[in-house]
# Entry
Amino acid sequence: MAMLTLDRWNLPIGDGQPLVVIAGLNVLEDLELALQVGRDLKAVTGELGLPYVFKASFDKANRSSIASYRGPGLEEGLEMLRAVKAELNVPICTDLHEVSQAAAVAAVADLVQIPAFLCRQTDLVIAAARATRAAGGLLHVKKGQFLAPQDCRSILDKVREATGADMTILCERGVSFGYGNLVVDMLGIPLMQELGAPVSIDATHAVQLPGAQVGSNGGASTGGRRSGVPVIARAAVAAGADAVFLEFHPEPDQALCDGPSALPLSAARGLLSQLKALRELHIR
# Structure
């Protein structure tokens, strides 16, 4: 088991601590929407006494189709995230995809996220870890869909060797066997915690159906089973997950990216209340 602290926000995550909520939009669409979602989620988590980190991507580089919406990009996206951070006074989580983005992203994000497909890219992991360490943040690494929980040891070792610090949160998001589906093994959560890192659950991306939805242009895109998000989230928190990663939208069916896996913003209070109760049972 392990515990880390995001020092600049006095936010602990890990063994014996309250459930951390990493939640927001799948991808930035515009500043007004980001502020609306962040404001609502901050209010709900505040009422429940749960630590909150706003999440949104500035670029979704891993898309099924070249025509898919990816986001505003690095420069404009980081400006939006900086504005959300200043306006709402909340920590920020966002992902990066290239070594060259590390310093700029770490200057804004408190949790710098490595996407699942890139978790074995040594240069990216090291650059992100060093930039994040220098900026005083933490690293949030999604376990690849192709990795067993024990395989994450090499990720933790790379970060420790590069920075001399334990600063990594591992994120479970399911394993892919192809055929347009993902499977989550809840036993993997304590296995990864035994490696010495707090573990989060990405309940949103765990219900994706990769390449399983045919778009209006006839090309395949990622589908999702929205109704499964609460199921995965509750099961993972009951299994001991230290944080939950969720994506919301006021109108999920109108979202520009991964709407089938997003929850309506109105569902936040009910689900987070349940997750808080499950976490409290687990840490008693």
About this structure: The first helix runs from residue 31 to 48.
